Amino acid sequence: MIRPFGGGDLARLLHGFGPASASVSRREMLRSGLGALLGIGFAAVLAFLLAGPPLPLLIPPMGASAVLLFAVPSSPLAQPWNMLVGNLVAAVIGVSVALLVDDVLLAAALAIGLAIGAMLALRCLHPPSGAVALTAVLGGPAIHDLGYGFVLWPVMGNSLLLLIAALTYNRLAGRSYPHSLAAPRHPHQTEDPPQLDRIGFASEDLDSVLKDLDAVIDINREDLEQILRRTELRSLRRRSGTTRCGQIMSRDVVAVAPDAPLGEAHALMARHHIKALPVTDDQARILGIVTQTDLLDRADWRGGRPGIGARQRLRLAMTGASAPNGTVKDIMTSPVRTVAPDMPISEAIVLFAEEGLHYLPAIGPGGKLVGIVSQSDVLVAMLADKAA
Length: 388
Fold this sequence. Notes:
- By secondary structure, the protein is mainly alpha-helical.
- The chain is 54% helix and 7% strand.
- The protein folds into three domains: 26-172; 195-239, no CATH class; 245-387, CBS-domain.
- It has helices at residues 7-16, 26-50, 61-71, 80-100, 104-121, 128-138, 141-144, 149-172, 203-213, 221-239, 245-248, 262-272, 292-297, 310-318, 345-355, 375-387, and strands at 276-280, 286-291, 300-302, 305-307, 359-363, 369-374.
């Protein structure tokens, strides 16, 4: 039985034609538009210098590629493999079909259909490549006269120039391109998954759902998993208690000066049975943090005393730091993640889980150290909340 089309169905249909809610800031909008402007401009100028008339300088599909490369550079469809190989495969197919099929309409349909199938098979799906295939068929005498030369120029030439512009601009703009998700911190180097991967669903659950869905999803699978896990973590934070960091933090904090010798930092940790020292200046402002791990990994131990080895000296030199002299500032982590005393411990839980941290200095007005929160402090507070 066919269900009649009701008013609710019409409302949902019309809603689908509306714009999606904005998910990016105006700053990101400006960054995307500026990137496309500079990218196409760069490609056009170099195309004129490298090729020049009578060859086509730019083809319209590059405008569509620019949308992906500069507006959504994290999309799987915008990655270099997809852009380069997708455009080349579509160009070869488009030229071949145009040479073999006389009927223009049939050739256009075949070119786009075969191009999509080939791109899916080669895992290089790039929507603007469909326009490349159609351009090879419908581009007119100027394109047809190029034959397979169309593949080399303008398709390959334009694609390489636009890709160079995207690689340069996105890196300068602080974006990850080619996009790869930052590896989760896994300090223990064991078979156990990172903390964030141990909550909620298993990775196999997501793989199973994606397999059942059997559709192209315009988001990297690893990105999707991270989004879901962070959503789950924030949901847990929202449902947790109202205990604040100031209620559980240690207030009588042992700190160390940045110019203190490494041996002094080690002695302080041993004397007070602690594993981390906030690093502060003369006004108690937080500058960094030094941990037992820093002493083990970044210091060079000789005769039972920590010093600065060649590897750490090279690392400091590459970052432009001042010449090492065997003090705390040579191995401390800076800048350091901090919390405020009035921050809910649920916020601290997110920082501990997402960034693999064990200690969070608490700061008050003027950036001055007022306490420190550890993972064990948060665990005790959570157990207390459950027992209440």
